[in-house]
């Protein structure tokens, strides 16, 4: 099992190791966090934060060496500067391999990358980095896995109530397929109404991650599936209506229309529109319909959409 862990890129999901629920498990590990800047909040939670320069491989090597890390978890993502992200990822992996790391989990955490390998254009490097990381890890006997989870349910939580994920800018919620806070609450039925979409709470990903880290060396699959709950968009609308005790609008958008919007968005050169369009295509093209969970998650309870929505939008929660 892993013992000394480095988390690179502590924003959003990366911070979830500090959640009270997972923290108990993580006491078993020694955790260091790599960041490009000081993170006093994380230090208060007991994390050893190391400020690193991802452009400087010797200093990255020294940072990894000083932690005696056996496992590297990357959450690095930079939608605004994909080239910088690509460079950071490659340098970090190179430094980790040179320092004899044994396990690596790249920043993925989205949909079924086997059936749907092409990420949204803002994260296009994921495709190339996957191939690069697979080659490097296989050549150096580093165990690695790509974690495929469902849509992160935390997106659907009320503004100001998300533990790990920032609220989307005001113009964004219009693209959320589940929008419980809208004046007229709604669910978008994206693509095939019969598709059973996977939705995973960030806490459950962290919980699953701990399970994975506790597995003996040599037991990881190159792809790890962790689904969380599964339901059709129509079921999500029915559940939400029951919890809110009011009418929830269902808006049907076919896959053809989702693809057409992607084409038009690219033509408009509006990056935000492109991002929204590509996300919605991914939510509706079947890529969030995950295969069965990887065996190591057997028996692990994950939160259901209904439970999460009731906790946040049920009566007595306003
Ligand atoms: N399935 C879903 O619904 C879903 C939803 C959200 C995210 N995800 C996936 O989850 C993963 C993590 O996303 P996240 O939301 O946690 O990301 P995030 O909050 O944006 O955090 C990314 C971290 O990357 C670091 N970073 C940014 N630019 C960098 C650069 N050029 N070089 C090195 N480090 C850089 C930053 O750390 P410092 O500033 O501290 O260095 C930042 O905290 C991604 O793979 C993303 O695609 C999936």
From TrEMBL:
Q: Name one GO molecular function term.
A: oxidoreductase activity
Q: Does the keyword Oxidoreductase apply?
A: yes
Q: What Pfam families does UniProt report for this protein, alphabetically?
A: NmrA (PF05368)
Q: Which UniProt keywords apply?
A: NADP, Oxidoreductase
The residue ranges of the NmrA-like domain are 29-262
Which InterPro entries does this UniProt record tie to the protein? NAD(P)-bd_dom_sf, NmrA-like, NmrA/Isoflavone_reductase-like
Family according to the record:
Belongs to the NmrA-type oxidoreductase family. Isoflavone reductase subfamily.
Q: What is this protein called?
A: NmrA-like domain-containing protein
């Amino acid at each position: 099992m892993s013992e000394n862990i480095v988390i690179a890129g502590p924003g959003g999901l990366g911070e979830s190791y500090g959640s009270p629920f997972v923290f108990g498990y993580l006491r078993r590990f020694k955790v260091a966090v790599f960041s490009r800047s000081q993170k006093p909040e994380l230090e208060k939670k007991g994390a050893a934060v190391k400020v690193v320069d991802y452009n400087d491989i010797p200093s990255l090597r020294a940072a990894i060496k000083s932690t005696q890390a056996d496992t590297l978890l990357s959450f690095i993502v930079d939608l605004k500067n994909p080239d910088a992200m690509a460079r950071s990822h490659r340098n970090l992996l190179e430094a980790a391999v040179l320092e004899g790391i044994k396990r690596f989990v790249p920043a993925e955490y989205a949909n079924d990358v086997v059936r749907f390998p092409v990420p949204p254009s803002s994260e296009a490097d994921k495709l190339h980095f996957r191939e690069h990381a697979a080659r490097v890890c296989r050549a150096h006997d580093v165990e690695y896995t790509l974690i495929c989870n469902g849509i992160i349910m935390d997106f659907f939580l009320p503004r100001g109530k998300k533990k790990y994920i920032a609220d989307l800018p005001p113009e964004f919620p219009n693209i959320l397929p589940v929008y419980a806070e809208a004046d007229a609450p709604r669910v978008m039925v994206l693509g095939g109404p019969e598709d059973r979409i996977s939705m995973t709470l960030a806490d459950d990903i962290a919980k699953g991650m701990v399970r994975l880290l506790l597995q003996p060396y040599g037991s990881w699959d190159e792809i790890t599936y962790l689904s969380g709950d599964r339901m059709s968009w129509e079921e999500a609308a029915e559940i939400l209506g029951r919890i809110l005790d009011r009418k929830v609008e269902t808006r049907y958008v076919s896959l053809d229309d989702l693809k057409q919007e992607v084409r038009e968005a690219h033509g408009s050169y509006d990056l935000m529109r492109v991002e929204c369009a590509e996300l919605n295509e991914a939510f509706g093209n079947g890529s969030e319909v995950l295969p069965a969970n990887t065996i190591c998650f057997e028996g692990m309870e994950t939160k259901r959409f209904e439970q999460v929505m009731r906790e946040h939008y049920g009566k007595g929660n306003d």
